[in-house]
Specification:
The chain has helices spanning 14-31, 97-113, 192-206; strands at residues 3-11, 35-41, 45-48, 65-67, 74-77, 81-87, 120-122, 125-131, 137-148, 151-159, 179-180. It has 220 residues and is α/β, with parallel strands linked by helices. The strands form two sheets. Strands 1, 2, 6, 7, 8, 9, 10 and 11 form an eight-stranded mixed beta sheet that branches. The longest helix has 18 residues, at 14-31. It starts with a strand and ends in a 14-residue tail after the last helix.
């Protein structure tokens, strides 16, 4: 088994992405298919995780809402946000869900650090947070995973330069007392290609620690 990287250049419909993830995860489980890290952008939409509360959808008709099997509550996806979906075989790497989520957090934190952004964990809050110059905390990356028979799917969403006003229609991840930020909001100039290069460059030192590094297939 090798690790394949794919990057989709256009906007990928959520239903298509979900079907693709489920099919690949099943192929990994049942047939030993290659693992996959898939980097993409979605059109504007909201996803509702398994803990989503109806009252946290403040403006129901702002964008389409997709109910999903990942953990977590409501979040927004849209252009300018890098979504990373990971289909990995934890049975071969390390069958420990807590360690996997910790590795995802470390991956995002290490990638942000390459741009001088200090991403941090917070007890009781999912995702990666930054402290803005005015002292306020804001979320820059969301994490939501699902694991079926030790094969992962879903993953992370990092705000490069999305429309942050879209988060006003939900209570992001059920947390109302803190804001949402992005590279652009923090004044950090970076392209999606720059972010992808950082994610690729920090993967083995973070996610790769879950198990022996697998040979990496070429990025599509």
């Amino acid at each position: 088994m090798t690790l394949e990287w794919q990057r989709s250049r256009g906007l990928v419909a959520y239903d298509h992405a979900l079907a693709t993830m489920e099919a690949r995860a099943a192929a990994i489980r049942d047939h030993g298919a290659d693992e996959l890290v898939w980097l993409l952008e979605h059109p504007s939409l909201y996803t509702a995780g398994t803990s989503a509360r109806p009252q946290d959808l403040l403006v129901p008709d702002r964008h389409p809402v997709h109910v999903t099997g990942r953990g977590g509550q409501y979040t927004y996806h849209g252009p300018g946000q890098r979504v990373g979906y990971l289909m990995l075989d934890l049975k071969r790497r390390r069958p420990d869900l807590r360690a996997y989520v910790h590795a995802l957090e470390a991956w995002v934190i290490a990638s942000l650090a390459r741009f001088g952004i200090a991403g941090e964990r917070r007890d009781g809050r999912v995702g990666i947070w930054v402290v803005k110059p005015d002292g306020r905390e804001a979320k820059i990356a969301a994490i939501g995973v699902r694991v079926r028979r030790w094969v992962t799917y879903h993953g992370v969403a990092i705000n490069l330069a999305p429309d942050l006003s879209a988060f006003d229609a939900i209570v992001p991840c059920g947390i109302s007392e803190h804001g949402v930020t992005s590279f652009a909001d923090l004044g950090v100039a970076a392209s999606m290609d720059d972010l992808d290069a950082a994610l690729a460059g920090t993967f083995e030192a973070t996610i790769g620690r879950l198990g022996p590094p697998a040979p990496v297939a070429a990025v599509a």
